[in-house]
């Protein structure tokens, strides 16, 4: 049963919580032990709270997931995890993480309460509203970045909030496209909003978000006030371009994108590109 509960907590998706460290890295505080420890603690708290959200979402979608070709194998729809156990865990995780967040920082606690409320609203209602569903998922990424900025206590460029939002929209629209194509005529039985999307509409949205992301990130590299005046952050632009183009290739040619957190680690060229981007960022911010 513990294994089934852990699977429902979706530890692979905890990779999304790495966005918390954006404030630490780009605020040039990565090598401050106390701040690093606060970010690690915040990461752990978000893993707990996001796990509660995943459990609530699976409880709400248990019947629809039984119609999905892969999600039917999840512990709740397959019957490997009793709903009562899942409900206890969904209540226990916020009861632990939110008070600890308030003890760490008042604003962090408020961000986590907002995140939990927003995600519960998404699971119960907002995921059935076309376009709003994707915006809410993207807002979750922004709140993760905000949480990291709060515990690091650094001034943070608005450009990175914009880039985070756009990147999250890019990933979310790509995921909706994959779901729509793989489920075919039964798409609306799994997710109501899929009946409102079409591949053409999603391709148009992805195109808009893609171009906007590239422009926003490029502007950030030479206009953010917290960066060095020599504009060396522009060296990271090619890696961002390749990463986006590679992701588009995987979505449109390989029909991937349904599980972004797995795709990043599964596709070696994409993973290598992200690693090179990260090393270049660290070089520019901490060595150059």
Write the layout of secondary structure elements.
Layout: H1 2-8, H2 22-26, H3 33-60, H4 62-65, H5 75-78, H6 83-104, H7 106-124, H8 132-152, H9 158-183, H10 187-190, H11 199-223, H12 237-252, H13 260-266, H14 268-286
Helix pairs in contact: 3-6, 3-7, 3-8, 6-7, 7-8, 8-9, 9-11, 11-12, 12-14
Give the helix tally.
Answer: 14
**Biggest pleated-sheet summary:** none
Please write the string of helix (H) and strand (E) elements: HHHHHHHHHHHHHH
Shape: globular
- Terminal residue distance: 51 Å
Proportion in β-strands = under 5%
What class do helices, strands and sheet pairing give? mainly alpha
What does the radius of gyration come to?
Answer: 19 Å
Give helix % range. over 70%
Which residues sit in consecutive blocks of at least 5 with pLDDT less than 50?
A: none
Kindly state the number of beta strands: 0
* Arithmetic mean of pLDDT: 87
Task: Name the quaternary structure.
Answer: single chain
């Amino acid at each position: 049963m513990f294994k089934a509960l852990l699977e429902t907590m979706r530890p692979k998706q905890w990779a999304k919580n790495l966005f918390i460290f954006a404030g630490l890295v780009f605020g040039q505080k990565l090598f401050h032990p106390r701040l690093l420890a606060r970010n690690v603690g915040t990461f752990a708290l978000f893993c707990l709270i996001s796990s509660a959200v995943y459990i609530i979402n699976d409880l709400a979608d248990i019947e629809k997931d039984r119609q999905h070709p892969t999600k039917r194998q999840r512990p709740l729809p397959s019957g490997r995890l009793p709903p009562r156990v899942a409900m206890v865990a969904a209540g226990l995780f916020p009861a632990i993480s939110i008070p600890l967040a308030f003890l760490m920082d008042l604003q962090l606690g408020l961000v986590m309460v907002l995140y939990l409320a927003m995600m519960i609203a998404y699971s119960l209602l907002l995921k059935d509203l076309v376009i709003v569903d994707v915006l809410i998922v993207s807002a979750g990424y922004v709140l993760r970045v905000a949480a990291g900025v709060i515990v690091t206590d650094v001034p943070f460029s608005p450009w990175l909030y914009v880039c985070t939002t756009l990147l999250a929209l890019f990933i979310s629209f790509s995921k909706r496209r994959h779901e729509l194509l793989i489920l075919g005529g039964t798409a609306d039985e799994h997710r109501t909003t899929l009946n409102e999307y079409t591949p053409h509409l999603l391709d148009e949205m992805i195109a808009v978000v893609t171009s906007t992301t590239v422009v926003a990130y490029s502007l950030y590299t030479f206009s953010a006030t917290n960066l060095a005046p020599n504009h060396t952050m522009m060296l990271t632009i090619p890696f961002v371009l390749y990463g986006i183009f590679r992701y588009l290739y995987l979505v449109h040619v390989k029909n991937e994108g349904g599980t972004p957190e797995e795709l990043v680690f599964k596709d070696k060229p994409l993973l290598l590109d992200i690693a090179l981007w990260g090393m270049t960022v660290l070089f520019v911010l901490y060595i150059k």
